[in-house]
Amino acid sequence: MSGYLLGVDAGQTATKAVLFDLAGRPVAVGSTRCPTVNPHPRWVERDMDDVWTAAADAIRQCLDNLGLDNLGIDSVGSPGEILAVGVVGHNDGMYAVDAAGRPVRPGITAMDSRAYQEVERWRPVFDEVLALTGQVPFEASPAALTAHLLRHEPEVMAEARWLLFCKDWLRLRLTGEVATDRTEASASFCDVRAGEYSDRALELLGLSGVRDKLPPIRGCAEVVGAVTAEAAERTGLAVGTPVVGGAHDVDAAAIGDGVLHAGQLSLVAGTFSINQVISDAVSTDTRWQARGWLTPGRWLNMSTSPASATNLDWLLRTVTGPVPHDEIDAEILAVAGDSSDVVFHPFLYGSPHGPGASASFLGLRGWHSRGHLLRALYEGVVCNHRTHVEALREAFPMGSVARLSGGGARSSVWPQMFADGLGVDIEITDTAEAGARGAAVLAGIGVGVWPDLPAAVADTVRVDRRYAQDPLGVQRFDDIYRRYLDLVHALG
Hints:
The chain is α/β, with parallel strands linked by helices and 492 residues long. The protein is 36% helix and 20% strand.
């Protein structure tokens, strides 16, 4: 079979559209940003039409880039040679639409924390909710946001017909079809073992009244619609191009990085600190979320917080101004031999240590340079990932190798810190867009390019770089992590 697959990965600030050949190699890329706004403290929102515009622009930009000399490829011809489209996106948050498929309010991202009081009210039922759904609600979970909107924006909830996730909103605009998938549906209201919506879960949370607003659950690689004439005109895709159900972007990133088997650890250093391991059985704990995997009978156990590489974006945007990544790495290497005096807590948008934890640089002195701040930020992000990985290690056997993707994987310095800080060898695959490749793989399975995930991964994923643990680096990071935790606890 010949042709191409389009993977769309909609994050919380940027959307990537990447066209892949059937060997998993990118042949064209489009990228756009859709900034968030903070109309009130704790609120992190986006205009939903802007989210669609950004995705449509990324797709058109990708198609416009076909055959450009700087990509080193020949033109793949017309959009009709695109066999299928897969869309993945950030989970949690809320993108609510009315019966006509129009937004009833701005979309809410997973960085939002307005619903913290709802979470506190549910503490008496946490144990039962955890046992049933595989997780407890947090501030940006669909459950918490639904409760908050019912309390504070009842007119909006009365108008809402469907409570969607980001990628479901984009697929709706592409195809006109309403659906979600098992990886996203399991974010709040599903029986973790059955993989279906649970009336008891809704009852425990006092949300039985929204049962009919939850979208139908379809397969991640199932064709659920086709590109409409309106979407084709906006994006440049061919009318009728199949679109599959898609998935939560972290599941897609795991597939795009070749992580398929129980015990494999994958890490995403991006907006969120994503630390996840696949399992063949359910194990529940408040420190991670047990959610449905792409295929029945397996689960993806995610220990996460909004505290990873997004901290670097914030620092460059608000403090230092733009700095090229190779220059950042060079500045960090220049101070690598200095003692680790500066500690950074990467809790700008949340933490695994409760809502009171905030971001901070500690131990700053007048002789410290920008390189020391950048190094501390890199180390602090790794320490936060370590908090999550150590929790997962208590329940799940893991191998000695982890796959890393996201912004942190683009550095030449950060992956070595991850290896030393987490005590695993780090592998980085041959794409900077693991989520988009995972989306494209699901699209390919949906139209028969591959029979299943193992066959697809075997054809599309290759390891590009490997960072082995350095014994001295591991020892040094043990000291850094102890100081980091001591300061977390001291600040309460």
